[in-house]
C-alpha cells in the first residue's frame, strides 16, 4: 500500500511529499527543504523507516518546490525528473533566488523528462501523470489510482487554486485543466496540495470559489 508523508518546509510553507510502499522504495516529490535542519528532518524519517529513495520528481519548478533538488540528487544519487516545459522555469530560479533571500541556492539539472500519461513506479505501486498547466507551463500531478489520492502541487488547494500571475501562468488554462483533468477523478479522491491542508475532489467541485458549482463567474 502506498504511504504518503508530508513535510512542510521553507518560508513559503511548501509541502514536500515522500511516497513509499512496503518494499521500502520511495519517491521524493517537490523537495522544498532548504536549511540543514529541514534536510535532517527528512533524512531522519527516511533512515528511521528504512527507505531507499529511488525517484526525484517535481510537479513544477517554482523556487519553493525545488530548493532541495541539488541536495537530494547528491545525497541519494537521484535523477531529477520534470516536465520538459518546466526546464526554463527551473533554470530561472538561480537568477531570482537571491531576491527572495536564498543566496545559497544550488541549481540542479533535469536528467529525465516526464510525459503526460506516463507511469512512475514506486516499489510495487504506480503513479499516473496528469498534465495540469496554468500555474506554470509544465505542471504535472501524480495520481495513485488504487487509493484515489493525488499529489497536486500548486494546481488545486482547499478552497483555492494556484496563482497564475507568475511568468508562464495562464488563469483560464488552469481553470480548464482542473475541470478536465482533476475533476474527472472520483469525488472521494484526496488531494495533497503544494501548500495547506488536504481536500477532496468532491468538496472542491462544489465549494471551490474558482471552479466549484457554487462559484460566481
From TrEMBL:
SMART domains: Lactamase_B
All copies of domain Metallo-beta-lactamase, residue ranges: 13-195
InterPro entries: MBL_Glyoxalase_II, Metallo-B-lactamas, RibonucZ/Hydroxyglut_hydro
Cofactor dependency: Zn(2+)
Assigned keywords, A-Z: Hydrolase, Metal-binding, Zinc
Molecular functions (GO terms): hydrolase activity; metal ion binding
Xref: SUPFAM superfamilies: Metallo-hydrolase/oxidoreductase
This protein's name: Glyoxylase-like metal-dependent hydrolase (Beta-lactamase superfamily II)
Pfam families the record matches: Lactamase_B
